[in-house]
Specification:
This protein is α/β, with parallel strands linked by helices. It has a single domain (about 10-235, about 260-270), classed as Vaccinia Virus protein VP39 (Rossmann fold), CATH 3.40.50.150. It is built from eight helices and twelve strands. Strands 3-2-1-4-5-12-8 form a seven-stranded mixed beta sheet, sandwiched between helices. Strands 9-11-10 form a three-stranded antiparallel beta sheet, with no helix packed on it. Strands 6-7 form a two-stranded antiparallel ribbon. Helix 4 (about 70-75) links the parallel strand 1 (about 60) and strand 2.
Length: about 280
C-alpha cells in the first residue's frame, strides 16, 4: 500500500492544482460544456449497459470534478450526489445542474474522499460511482475502499471505471515501457498545462500515486466488497497515444492489426448484507 509519507501538503497541492484547472476545463473543447448542456452524455457506451437501470436509485459520485458524469447518471433517472474537494468544480457542477433542469435531483458537496462519510451526513447509497482518472490522486486505497463500503447500503454496489494502470507505464508514443508498474510511493509533477486545450496554469504542482490493478481489487475485497466483474477494455476516452484512432463508440482504440493492451477497466463490487 502506498502512503503520503514524506510528501508535504499533498492534499493542499492537489486541491490548488485542481482549483486552477476548473476555469481552463470549463472553457475547453475537451469538456464541451455547451454540448453537455445541449444533451450530450459523458458516459462511455458500456457504462449504462454494465451498471443497468439507475432510475430512482441513490448514486454517490466520488471525485466528480465539474459533475458531467454525475449529471449524465441523473439524466438516466438516478438521484445523484457528487463530491469533490475543489470548491470551484462543485460550484460549476451546481451551475450545470441548474442549467439543465436537474437541480432538484442533484446535490454537490465539497469534501475530499476520505471525509466523505462525514461530509454526506451519514447518508447511504445504492451505488457509489467513481470515474476515469480518479484513483491516482489517492495515496491510500485501503482507506478509500472502507469509505466506499461505509457509503453503501447492504446490497449496494461500487461501479468503478478507470484508466488501466498499465497505460501509465508507457512512453508518450505508447511503444516502450518507461515506468515501473510496481513503483512505490508518490510521484510529484510540475506541469504548466492540464490535459485539455487552454492556457497554462498558475498552480502547477501535483502529487500522484500509481495503483496496480491487484491493489484495487485487494483493497475492495478487504473492505468486505464482493467483486462481481472486472472488465478490461481496448478503448479509452482520448487519444493518449499517436497510434490510437477514433472508433464507433466515440472512444479511441488501436487500429486493426496493431498489438493491443487494455486502456481502461471497469469493475463492479457489491456490499453483501452483513458486510463491513
Amino acid at each position: 500500500m502506498t502512503t503520503a509519507d514524506n510528501v508535504p501538503d499533498w492534499l493542499t497541492r492537489n486541491r490548488e492544482n485542481w482549483d486552477d484547472r476548473v476555469a481552463v476545463h470549463a472553457a475547453s473543447d475537451f469538456y464541451d460544456l455547451a454540448g453537455f448542456r445541449a444533451g450530450a452524455s459523458t458516459l462511455r457506451p458500456f457504462e449504462p449497459a454494465e451498471l443497468g437501470d439507475v432510475r430512482g436509485r441513490r448514486l454517490a459520485h466520488l471525485q466528480c470534478h465539474m459533475g458531467q458524469d454525475t449529471l449524465s447518471w441523473a439524466r438516466r433517472g438516478a438521484e445523484v450526489t457528487g463530491l469533490d474537494f475543489s470548491e470551484p468544480a462543485v460550484r460549476t457542477a451546481r451551475g450545470l445542474a441548474g442549467d439543465i433542469g436537474l437541480a432538484d435531483r442533484a446535490r454537490f458537496v465539497v469534501s475530499d474522499v476520505y471525509a466523505a462519510v462525514e461530509a454526506l451526513g451519514g447518508a447511504r447509497f445504492d451505488i457509489v460511482y467513481t470515474g476515469r482518472g480518479s484513483l491516482v490522486w489517492l495515496p491510500d486505497l485501503v482507506r478509500w475502499a472502507r469509505v466506499v463500503s461505509e457509503l453503501l447500503v447492504d446490497g449496494g454496489a461500487l461501479y468503478l471505471v478507470e484508466f488501466h494502470p498499465l497505460t501509465d507505464t508507457l512512453d508518450d508514443d505508447g511503444t516502450r515501457v518507461v515506468e515501473d508498474y510496481f513503483q512505490p510511493g508518490a510521484e510529484t509533477f510540475d506541469s504548466p498545462h492540464t490535459y485539455t486545450d487552454g492556457p497554462p496554469l498558475t498552480r502547477t504542482v501535483s502529487v500522484q500515486w500509481l495503483h496496480p490493478l491487484g491493489e484495487v481489487v485487494t483493497a475492495l475485497a478487504g473492505a468486505g466488497l464482493r467483486i462481481e466483474f472486472l472488465h478490461e477494455h481496448p478503448t479509452t476516452a482520448f487519444q493518449r497515444y499517436p497510434a490510437l484512432e477514433r472508433d464507433e463508440t466515440r472512444g479511441y482504440a488501436f487500429p486493426e492489426g496493431h498489438p493491443r493492451i487494455p486502456l481502461m477497466y471497469s469493475l463492479r463490487a457489491v456490499k453483501d448484507g452483513g458486510g463491513r
